[in-house]
Write a structure and sequence with these properties.
Four copies of one chain form a homotetramer. By secondary structure, chain A is an alpha/beta fold. Chain A has one domain: Glycoside hydrolase/deacetylase (TIM Barrel). In chain A, 41% of the residues lie in helices and 17% in strands. The first copy, chain A, has nine helices and ten strands. In chain A, the strands form two sheets. In chain A, strands 1-2-3-4-5-6-9 form a seven-stranded parallel barrel, surrounded by six helices. In chain A, a hairpin with a 5-residue loop joins strand 7 and strand 8. The longest helix of chain A has 21 residues. Chain A is globular.
Chain lengths: 262, 262, 262, 262
């Protein structure tokens, strides 16, 4: 039964100064882990302090969500950065979030790169290794979360770090296991029933049906949900209820990995 | 003899991206502690990584040098910030530097606010308390360095933190113990002999002659030197030699405090 | 009848990157002038391009809304800046917005400083003069908008610039003509009827009842409305309708000034 | 004889806040045009104000030097930006510099993209067109300067803008006319005699010897020199003297283009 545990995670703390994004507290009622922006692509020291306090209140596990130094682009624009730059930018952001966790008497459960950094580290081994080195050095007890079956997960495991395979509840997959880019029609799945069915199939049967109808092997440790709209929160709640009803236990990433002996 | 120990500190790691400031490595040969910029008023994740490695190479004790979020103003422009903002901005920056120290297998010896934050925390009790709370929460083993006899030192000690009184080797003092502002003629002392004599008097006799000729009580734990010019490095070397010749032992801040039973 | 013209203005284009603020297009249907953020306290080059295009579509007059270089603080935190810095930061931002207006075949109607810069220029003559010099140099045909009866309006007029007295529709006034700070109870007036009545009294009778019941002389050229919430848009619409019903003509700032022979 | 005119240009105003780069005033004594950073990859409103005043003092023609929004990377890291983003970021920066030129009673002679933006616009037609559209819209009288024979020069000319072919005095060329990347040995030529000889050959004979010994056609309108070191200033002076001695007339870009009937 160990395989029937899975984590639900969401990106939070993505405001900046006067800018507010999403409904962080609503989301926290439904997910088991949250990824907190660290001031580069979003978030600032005030937002981080508030977000960590909320996470404590709702007892959700916290991870760092480091991104490229590009607030205007929300960390979604790829930049030519070296492995050395990546290692240092991840260390900086992870360290900054650790301060707020320490202040709240909490631990950092995981680290998950954001946006373009996530995508670059999924396919580029040198950048993946740089992220993993940063985590190993600064938060060796943390789980490194990456795209399922990606270079990032490989790099983390080969370095002896805990790593988690992440899947996306509402995104279509290519036959090679990569995500269909957002601008392509059908890339985002909005029907709650379909979302629940897809995640359930991933968790129980370790497969997802790609856009060409082929089956792709996938064994999710954690499921990512987007929570920046009211509809999104409803979808998160629907997924939580749907999975629970089907006998899937929701638990933080570390518990999921432990249940699998990872 | 405990009083005849003193620390020499300098601000380092103040570059940013392609911008290089000062001659960090030269300075490290002469001082016992360095204050490393943390990315807000100066420094970035690449500069911090390099600076910490240099500090390890030269075996100097490292402290965080958090500043206001104002790169253009180099953290020297006062901003109206709340105690809550100050606490969080210091936690963020201290945490970020801790990551690089952890990577290098080093500890954070001290925290010293920079520029306008330093001045504001010297005279405003609420901001001083905010800085001290941040340090207590995130780096409780670190020494908080503030202007000698200032609110910052008071706040730190009343909270049970180690605190160090800082003096300025090359700056004139007002009768109330504050520094004469830089733009006033005579505010900066450039003659090496005079600098050595003044510091010696502070260390041995616990006094400094203010601009009006009056004597101000001052008991320095650490002496700040500026190192952003070639002349400055020469001055640092002169001070080091002059103090050593007069029987003053130079040692990192924590050693100085320990020798005083603080 | 010349006195019975007034302009309604609102701050717009205050998003940044992925961050969206307010309902700019809704507001544009109701106001006669808009103040566009220029990238320092809010806004960026993409937001500015979009906002100027919208203003063209809805035929509202556009002004620059330069602020302090403090995105995190939304330009609301006072900073110690010199008149020289203020002159240059205003020139920079005004010039940047002029580019987008030129691209759209439009002219810059006015310049109105934002937030802390607005408040500092209202009471500090040297900073007021610096703002006015910047406008005179870069946009001499533009109207400089400042707090009614403030140093900024004085500085602009003494330099031969057109200047407009701004009042706040939903804010309580002190007996000296300054605004009651937001954190004080009663500082913000939310009842639409009361807002209409107050503005009507200002426009027709050149007075506002201060918090102590005294009458303050005020002759508004332009009325500022905040539009960052749905309620705010409703209030703007209510004010527009109320004033029109009472025989007040709404017109852009330059038309209002021309009607007064200013 | 028209071909024997050429412009010498240098990048200036690349400081930021307390950071100083290069010896701007020394360089201005030797070049005929300067490219002024506009606050994105370098420069800020204070640096721009100072640099424009210096350019006026030394009577050098001024151009805008817009870059990617990446101060830490000095605009040298490629970022995935859309043509729409490029158009708006160039408009913003050109407009900002125009303000300082207006204040100084000067005109903008040219626009030359910086660093990664320059390289991207040299090879990507859509980005090249975006830069050209921005210039056409905001500074239609300005010359657009691009890598000789690049897409940027093509895009500008096809849009009816004046365009200038730029060559690099101290850089080795590939057989296809592109620059040998800096990290490859021999990419940078430091011997003054060789630099003068190469530029002279370009100006008189319209050719450069590529790294493989082949001849590449090149007809320079302007020659770029780097001036961020003391040696660089000496090289600029040597080139100026060498070219003058050989009968080449140095003149601002617009004069050079006019002499060629462009």
């Amino acid at each position: 039964m160990a395989n029937y545990l899975v984590d639900l995670n969401a990106d939070l703390g993505e405001g900046f100064g006067a800018y507010v994004v999403g409904t962080d507290e609503e989301l926290m009622k439904h997910v088991t882990s949250v990824n907190v922006a660290c001031g580069f692509h979003a978030g600032d020291f005030m937002v981080m302090a508030r977000t960590v306090k909320l996470a404590k209140k709702w007892s959700v596990a916290v991870g760092a969500h480091p991104g490229l130094p590009d607030l205007q682009g929300f960390g979604r624009r790829e930049m030519k950065v070296t492995p050395e730059e990546v290692k240092s930018m991840v260390m900086y952001q992870v360290g900054a979030l650790q301060a707020f966790l320490k202040d709240a008497g909490m631990h950092m459960q995981h680290v998950k790169p954001h946006g373009a950094l996530y995508n670059m580290a999924a396919r580029d081994l040198a950048l993946a290794a740089a992220v993993a080195e940063a985590v190993k050095s600064v938060a060796p007890e943390a789980v490194l979360v990456g795209l399922a079956n990606s270079e990032l997960v490989n790099a983390a495991r080969s370095m002896g770090l805990m790593a988690a395979n992440e899947v996306f509840a509402d995104r279509a997959y290519n036959p090679d296991g990569s995500l269909v880019p957002r601008h392509i029609p059908g890339a985002v799945i909005t029907d709650p029933e379909q979302v629940v069915e897809r995640v359930f199939r991933m968790v129980y049967h370790h497969e997802v049906i790609a856009v060409d109808g082929s089956k792709v092997f996938i064994d999710p440790d954690t499921v990512c949900l987007h929570g920046d709209t009211a509809e999104a929160v409803a979808l998160v709640a629907a997924l939580r209820n749907g999975l629970t009803r089907e006998g899937v236990t929701l638990a933080p990433i570390k518990t999921v990995l432990a249940s699998k002996g990872l």
